[in-house]
Amino acid sequence: MKEYILAKTADLDTVFNIVQNSIKSTYPKYYPKEVVDFFCNLHSRENILKDIECGSVGILIVEGKCVGTGCYKGNHITRVCVEPEYQGNGFGTYIMNRLEEKIAKKASTAVLDASLPAAHLYSSRGYKTVEHCKYPVENNVILVYEVMEKELTLTRKEKSFIEMKIFQVKPDKLEQFETKIEEMAENQLKCLGCISLKYFKRFYTIDGIKLGEPPRKLTKIVKCVKYYSFWEFDTKENYGKAIKAFFDDYNKELQKLLIAPFDINLGDSV
Asked: Residue 120 is part of which domain span?
C-alpha cells in the first residue's frame, strides 16, 4: 500500500534524515564538497521544521515505512527526496504527481530549481528551462542550476472522471457563497464548477465546457439537490481522493458555507 500524507512536527526527524541521506548519497556524484554542504545546510532541520509548520511538506508511506518526502510553496516545488535504498522504484515520480496535483488547484504552472541529479526526471515530465542561474558557495565554488517550469493545464484525457461530489450550500449562505466563488481566480476553477438550480445558466465553467452550459450527465443528477450546489470531479488517476483533497487544501472560508456532500459515481467524462 502506498499513500502520500501531510507531514506533522512529529515527523521532523524522519523527513530530515530522508533529505540528508538522499543528498549525501547522490549529490557527491555530481557536485564538489562545497555544493553538497550548501544543499545540506539549505535543507537544515530548522528550515524543514518551518516548512512542516506551514503545512507544505508531505511524506510517502509504502507498506508502513516512510520512504520519501516532498515540499512546495505556492507553485514552487522546493524538495523531492527518496531514501537511497528506495530510489529507482518510481517513488520520486509519485511524489511529483502529488505535488503537481496540489499546485494545479491554485496555479497554472509549477516551478522548480533543478539540481543535476533530478534534471532528467523533470525534463521527462515536461519541465522546460526558463532561466540559467549561478550561486556562489564556499571557496569560490559556483553552483550552476536551472529554473524550470511546466504548464499544468489539464489535457482532455486528464479531464475524464469516474467520481463526482456534489456539495450543497447552506441556504442562508447562498449570497456569501456566490460572492466567494466570483472572487476565486480562474485557474482555481480548473477542477471545480458551480450550478444554480434556480438560475440554471449561471454556471462557472471549467476547461472544455462552454460557459453557461451544464456538463453532460449532471443535469439529471442535480434535480434532487436543493438550493445552490458545488461539485468537483475526480480524475481516474486520483480516484477517490477528490473529497479529501477539497477539505484538506481548499479555501477554508468556502468550506464553512457547505453542507456534507452527496456521493455520486459516474462512468463518463465531460
From this structure: 2-151
| pTM greater than 0.85 | no
CA 252 to chain CA centroid, nearest Å: 17
| Cα angle: 11, vertex 247, 242; to 5 degrees | 100
Using alpha carbons, list the distances in angstroms from residue 222 to 164, 168, 205, 227, 230: 12, 10, 16, 10, 10
H/E run at residue 157: none
Q: Read off the C-alpha cell for 57.
A: 511538506
Convert the pLDDT of each residue in 101-120 to its tens digit.
Answer: 999 888 889 999 998 888 88
SS3 at position 3? strand
Q: What is the DSSP string of 214-260?
A: PPTTTHHHHTT--SEEEEEEEESTTTT-HHHHHHHHS-HHHHTTEEE
Taking the alpha carbons at both ends of the chain, their separation in whole angstroms is 30
| Whether residue 180 is found in the same domain as residue 259 | yes
For the chain, the domain total comes to 2
